[in-house]
């Protein structure tokens, strides 16, 4: 399993497409920084293809006032969870 | 596990430095070792010793220095990316005939080869980009 | 030319930016060259806008800003011969293999996960 990390929102950047195309069937995607906009219920459709393997960083959602808008299908992790995801992955790839 | 971080965002311009520092603290708290932070692209600005942020903002430069002092994490700056952006240690300043220098210990100007070595040496290399 | 996967190696450098507009492409190529000089086996993937790094006819920019076309010529000297590009991206710009200045292998989007899985370290620029 590879952990992909995305810090751009799907509303204004196509980086998410490059990330999704690059993901294997077991890989996970973590949304951080402005990437967490993609976790919002109104945006999460862009990540349909990886349902169940999408994560978002709690601190970055919270800082932007978006924790309440985060879709139930997204697994919200804090920074410790971010570290755990990297432990569990063979490697990480960042998309920006 | 042994970790390395690659930071490519300038401080106070993007969230990359904040994200990297937060991740660094968390991985160390979990018992991992952070071998080195390598600064590349605009990330080299993190090494600017003259930064003077407002007092009510996080002092990113000091936070990097604390990582080095408390955990022995190396702070390695790509020399080619740094020189282009006006980030010179005393030796480079002298070599280029500059009156002052903008980088000092614990930050070290090094070649990109150190990033490749880091990638080889650690279990996980995590990139924080702007 | 199509790529024969799986391609494996020490380092995969993914280049996603256009020449001249930012330093990403140059800095990504520099990382690849240094890794090769350190004896690592390096693969390049030109993805999305990055395929334009391979376009023929590139010139220097304003004020003589050096592009990256000359750096591409150095890849062979450093034994970086595993060059791949995103087929769909090339089509998106209406370009064909004949428009490229280097022999590179086209890869389908579905092959990119294998490329990534096959390398110990992946750096994106």
UniProtKB/TrEMBL annotation, chain A:
Enumerate the InterPro entries for this protein: DsrEFH-like, Sulphur_relay_TusB/DsrH
Q: Which Pfam families match?
A: DsrH (PF04077)
Lineage top rank: taxon = Bacteria
What is the protein name given in its UniProt record? Sulfurtransferase complex subunit TusB
Native source species: Billgrantia bachuensis
The organism that produces this protein has a lineage beginning with: Bacteria, Pseudomonadati, Pseudomonadota, Gammaproteobacteria, Oceanospirillales
UniProtKB/TrEMBL annotation, chain B:
Q: Which Gene3D superfamilies match?
A: DsrEFH-like
Pfam families on file: DsrE (PF02635)
Q: Name one GO molecular function term.
A: transferase activity
Which compartments is it annotated to reside in? Cytoplasm
- InterPro entries per the UniProt record, alphabetical: DsrEFH-like, Sulphur_relay_DsrE/F-like, Sulphur_relay_TusD/DsrE
Alphabetically list the UniProt keywords: Cytoplasm, Transferase
Enzyme Commission numbers on file: 2.8.1.-
> Out of the domains of life, which is the source?
Bacteria
Write down the top EC class of this protein: transferase
For this chain, the family text in UniProt reads: Belongs to the DsrE/TusD family.
Indicate what this protein is called per its UniProt record: Sulfurtransferase complex subunit TusD
Give the organism, scientific name.
Answer: Billgrantia bachuensis
Q: In the UniProt record, what gene is named as encoding this protein?
A: tusD
Automatic annotation (TrEMBL), chain C:
**One Pfam family from the record:** DsrE
Q: Which Gene3D superfamilies is this protein grouped with?
A: DsrEFH-like (3.40.1260.10)
Give the InterPro entries listed for this entry.
DsrEFH-like, Sulphur_relay_DsrE/F-like, Sulphur_relay_TusC/DsrF
Q: Which domain of life is it from?
A: Bacteria
Which NCBIfam families does this one have? PRK00211.1, sulf_tusC_dsrF
Q: What family name appears in the similarity comment?
A: Belongs to the DsrF/TusC family.
PANTHER family from the UniProt entry: PROTEIN TUSC
Q: Please state what the protein is called.
A: Sulfurtransferase complex subunit TusC
In its UniProt entry, the species of origin is given as: Billgrantia bachuensis
């Amino acid at each position: 399993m590879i952990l992909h990390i995305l810090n751009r929102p799907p509303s204004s950047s196509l980086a998410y497409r490059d990330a999704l195309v690059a993901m294997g069937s077991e890989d996970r995607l973590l949304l951080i920084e402005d990437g967490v906009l993609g976790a919002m219920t109104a945006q999460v459709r862009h990540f349909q293809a990886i349902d169940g393997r999408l994560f978002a960083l709690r601190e970055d959602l919270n800082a932007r006032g978006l924790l309440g808008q985060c879709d139930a299908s997204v697994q919200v992790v804090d920074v410790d969870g971010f570290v755990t995801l990297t432990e569990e992955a063979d490697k990480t790839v960042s998309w920006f | 596990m042994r970790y390395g971080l690659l930071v490519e965002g300038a401080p106070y311009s993007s969230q990359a430095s904040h994200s990297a520092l937060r991740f660094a603290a968390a991985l160390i708290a979990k018992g991992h070792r952070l071998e080195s932070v390598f600064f590349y692209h605009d990330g080299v600005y993190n090494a600017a010793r003259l930064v003077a942020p407002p007092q009510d903002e996080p002092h990113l430069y000091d936070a990097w220095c604390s990582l080095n002092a408390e955990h022995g994490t190396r702070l390695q700056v790509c020399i080619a990316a740094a020189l282009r952006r006006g980030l010179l240690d005393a030796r480079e300043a002298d070599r280029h005939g500059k009156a002052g220098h903008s980088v000092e210990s614990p930050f070290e100007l090094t070649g990109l080869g150190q990033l490749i070595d880091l990638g080889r040496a650690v279990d996980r290399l995590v990139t924080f980009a702007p | 030319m199509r790529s024969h996967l799986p391609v494996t190696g020490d380092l995969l450098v993914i280049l996603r930016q256009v020449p001249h507009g930012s330093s990403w492409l140059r800095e990504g190529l520099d990382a690849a060259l240094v890794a090769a000089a350190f004896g690592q086996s390096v693969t390049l993937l030109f993805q999305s806008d990055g395929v334009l790094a391979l376009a023929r006819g590139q010139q220097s920019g304003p004020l003589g800003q050096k592009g990256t076309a000359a750096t591409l010529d150095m890849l062979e000297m450093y034994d970086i011969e595993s060059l791949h590009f995103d087929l769909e991206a090339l089509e998106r710009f209406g370009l064909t293999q004949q428009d490229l200045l280097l022999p590179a292998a086209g890869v389908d989007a579905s092959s990119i996960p294998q490329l990534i899985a096959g390398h110990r370290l992946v750096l994106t620029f």
